[in-house]
Automatic annotation (TrEMBL):
Residues 1-19 form the signal peptide. It comes from the Bacteria. The keyword Zinc does not apply. The lineage of its organism: Bacteria, Pseudomonadati, Bacteroidota, Flavobacteriia, Flavobacteriales. It comes from Chryseobacterium indoltheticum. Keywords: Signal. This is Outer membrane protein W. Residues 18-199 form the Outer membrane protein beta-barrel domain.
Amino acid sequence: MKKLLLIASVAVMGVAVNAQEFKFGPKAGYSLSMLNAEGDGESYKFDSKSTFYVGAMVEYKFNDRFAVQGEVLYSPIGGKQEESVSYTEMGVTVTGTQKSDWKFGTVQIPVSAKYYATESLAFGLGLNVGIVTSAKVEASATLSGSAMGESFSESTSTTEDVKDDVNTLNLAPFIGAEYTLENGLFFDARYNLGVSNLIKNPEGNETLKNSFFQIGIGFKFGGN
């Protein structure tokens, strides 16, 4: 009986120690998203788009230095365009601006290997597997002009669903750093380099890629 109790005690202690290697919790933060289009030897960078992300993470530490981490996040990434318009047609001069907002609703699954330089500071390298669940382009235009002494102005806006024209998978390798306080609160920052062509049926060598920065905060539950 004593031998059985000893074995059971050792087993329970082993489970407790292993449980301390797992940590999990929520995280959320700010994303700065950038679209880059290329084709026919030319490139175009969209204006950066400020957005957010929210989700959860789980971490397993092999030892004091090395760990792996997986996450599930949601983020509406994309990019923006704004162009000035000026032209004259049939004696009428028209000026104004045209804007477009590209929105890709994305479920992100980042998986990373982490190295703890200290007990609190870790550096990570991994792959963010993005799944595009929705894709829309919101466009607007504000035009004004004058003709025969009369002035006029006009504003229009449209929303187009472009999900059928966008690839579902958006892969982005990333590198980042994380700092964790003793109470489990942590802060992290990453740069995700978009490598997937989001255009489903490109003409020639057309590409559209989405890279983004992430700055976040979260809390880790689990053993110390």
